[in-house]
Amino acid sequence: MQIRPVGLLQAITEGDPVERSVASQVDELQAVAQQIRSAVETVIEGKPEAIELSLIALFASGHLLIEDVPGVGKTMLAKALARSISGTAQRIQFTPDLLPSDITGVSIFNSQSRTFEFKPGGVFANVVIGDEINRASPKTQSALLEAMEEHQVTVDGVTHPLPDPFMVVATQNPIEMEGTYPLPEAQRDRFMLRISMGYPVRASEVAMLDHHGAGDPLADLQPVTDVATVAGLAETVRTIFVHGAIKDYLVAVLEATRHSPDVRLGASPRAGLQLLRAARTRAVLRGRHYVIPDDIEALAGPALAHRILLSPAAQLARRDADEVVESAVRSVPIPDRD
Amino acid sequence: MRGSDRLGLALMAALALSLTALEPVTADGRLYLEALAMIVVVCASGIVTRRLLPTDRGARLIQALVAFAALVALAMFEGVSTNPFGIPDLLATALRWTVESSAPMPPNQAVRIVAVTAVTLLALLADQLSISLSNPGAALLPLGVPYLIAAFALPTLVTFWPLLWLAVGYVLVLLADAADRSRVLRFQAVGGSRWGMLLGGAISLLCALLVAGLAGVFTPGLDPDRGAPFSGQGPVQMGDPSLDLRRNLQQPMDRRVISYTTGRDTGSYLRMTSLPAFDETGFHLNPIDLMTGSLPAPEGAPGGLARFTIEVAVDDFNAEWLPLPYAPAAFTADGDWRYDPVSLSVLSAGPQQKRATNGLTYSATVVDVTPTRAELSRAIAGRPRDTFTAALPADFPTEIIEIARRITSAAKTDGEKAILLQDWLRSSVFSYSTEPAPGSGYEALTQFLLVDRSGYCEQFASSMAVMARALGIPSRVAIGFLPGRQVGGHYEVNIRDMHAWPELFFAGLGWVSFEPTPSVATPPTYTGAANASPSPSPSASPTPSRSTASDEPSAEASTPADDEPTVITDADLSWLGWLGAGVGLLVVALLPSLVRRGRRARRLAAAAPREAVSGAWDELRDSVWDAGYEWPRGSARKIGGEVARTLPDDAAAAMGRVAVLVERSRYAESVGDTAGLGDDVRQVRVAVAERGRGWWRKVLPRSLWRGFWWKG
């Protein structure tokens, strides 16, 4: 249940100038996010959680890994996101014969100017969609993953910065695993959140048939903001206050995944950093200028489940990583005393 | 008010309530007042010193010093020497008085000082245990000591009420502690400290039992069933008074032998001794150990009985036994007189033993052991210390046993059986005559009961005594004098008033006299019809109502009383007891809701924003518990959402606002504006209370105990 009416925050922060300025930034971000959300929802029907998580990844400068069966709108979500912030979008279809240079770009010799010219690869865009990333060779995968981490590409000794904001939305098909190269743990760790779309509910699916049958909704989608605004707001997120009790709680959650008997490899410190950034963003998206345990709790699954390795026993018992993370979170008491 | 202040006040009340247990032990009103004053001094000084001094150890020291100074001041006020070398004497005097006087003890300065000192130490112990050592569960040890002393020393006299008061006081202490602790518990490992408290309680209960058991054993004089351990004793020749009886009843010339004045408004049977042993030849004396000093309390009799005085002048009558009403508490007589602690008869040990009573003038204080009719008809047979009084030889004629059973078949209790026995012997079946052969052996009794049914007091008394034994009621035959005739302001007793009568032993009543001999005297009123009014005959009805206060005991054998004695009678006490119980029950009934209200007021009064918000949240949690619902688990937001779902819209919005404030107070940099908090809490509280109605929820707020095992 959403308790806090939207206007309440202003009401209770009146009279505090510092808080008021934070509050106004928070409100601006919330408003922008709401616009993006509405725009994306015209394309993706009935998936508010997936849309919120992708917004969190966008404003937290993180990357998104979407694991799901084909045809549920993974690519559509990424494209809609890019379009609504009037950013550039590139789609790279990962195949076994894809080369690293297809991603980063190549220097080719221009016979007219007699110079080498850099021809940017697919990664040079605000939103990069890596479709079926597990089908490319590890070498090609790592080219993308390096770009994700560094926010730049170096080709022939020349460094080319990537645009800001820069977000990779990679998709993986968990069903057709034949002839794929599953992402190694180290590389999965670079994705801030992993989500799965799931099938739409019946009413949404019916509505989708109506809308998409008439024309291309993506073409009708109008940008609601620009990339500069998004980049600026992403800076705001970093200033959000986090209470010491919340940090303790977060670390306790990480430790719980490490000590769980079902887990062979627990969440890394980097996972904690990213989870905290995501939690800050979620707080702002919900109109708060402070993080609460609910943020951590809600994001622990998407932020941690793809990073941990289950123990052989848990795998044999067909336990799900999401479920294991959830029970680890439940085992940590909420910091409810000041 | 701080938690330790509350606990201090609760302890003060609990200690004061625990003193009620001493009611059967001492009748010294001043002792209670002084003990109460010391309790107040100890607890109040504890509260003040803990507030003023930073360290707990310093506070404890100052508190002990204050208590000591107050004791010294009390001793000076009492006029007792404060020289420390006088303490052994004081203790010895107090111990002697305790051992020698019967319960309830008359006032005595030494006893008072010692008892008040003991209470002061108990108060200090209780204060240290429960506040300084934070273990209020252990306060049961000092609180229970007065009750357990009374219970061990006077098992038959201790009633239920002091236990109730003790429980009320203990609950007060625990509640005062719980109010404070409920906040702390959630931080600590809840299980640990709760089990710790239980363990502490159990250990202190054991210690209290041990201490009180020892104390009870070492205050033997308080127990009516125990004799004085240090008194001169020695062999004394005794004459069988039943021989005198036979001889005197057949005196050709009746003459006055005794005259007496009594503080009571009727005359009294003057007993010389009682014959406990019975064999085929009749009733006999047994060898006895004679003692000096204060007489013990009458065996088996309840405490708090009225007393009266009697002044006796013996003319020309020779006996080694001192004629006294039963039960003498103290006597003053010239010569060397000793007493038998079992029968309470008084015997001369002087040189002119057989003629010791001749021309003697003496006075005595007597405990009026007369029961009421209702008490007697409820009574069951007791077990006296002298087992001879219950023994019936194996070869005793079964016909007599059968008669006894037959005529008492309608009775339900032993008391009623005794009354039926007396009624039968007093019926027209029997006739009084001094003609028959004397004696109370098998042959004499069989002849008397089955054949000629004619005899005098010896046969009547012996018959009733043996038939009572046949029915399981311990009995003995008392020898002495009838009350005599009232002449002006005094009574006169003649030689032919010499008499024998049975005494039967009942639990809770002690030895009760009966009068089975027709013609010579009317039966005691407590054996008459249930609604019989007291007999008009002064010479034969020794029964004023027990509840009338008698004259003050004036002449004590050993130490004269230094105070006006406070005689607390049963009637006063039962009235007070009922009133006290009523007030106590009311207080107990209202206590939980008062504690709950106090908690609410304290929480909502917090000024600092974070404390105010935290208090408001605790208050809402308790309100939800009080209404009979569970407080959800999880974050403030989750709890707020779940509770708000059950509430009407505006209360739900208020709950949401409080939850956001709680969240901010815990996780944000500043709490924000808490101005509307009070109103929001009230709105939610009212709405929650609406959902859980029922007067019992108000009387017994669930939150008071729910918090004990709740882990946040």
Short structural summary:
With 338 residues, chain A is α/β, with parallel strands linked by helices.
The overall pLDDT average of chain A reads 83
Query: Which overall shape of chain B is indicated by the principal axes computed on the Cα atoms?
Result: elongated
The percent of residues in helical segments of chain B reads: 40-55%
Q: Quaternary state, please?
A: heterodimer
Give the strand order of the largest sheet of chain A, numbering strands 1, 2, ... along the chain.
2-5-8-1-9
Using a beta-carbon cutoff below 8 angstroms, give the protein chain pair with the largest interface and the number of residues from each chain. A-B, 28 and 32 residues
Do you know the CATH architecture of the largest domain in chain A? Answer: 3-Layer(aba) Sandwich
The profile of the biggest β sheet of chain A is: 5 strands, parallel
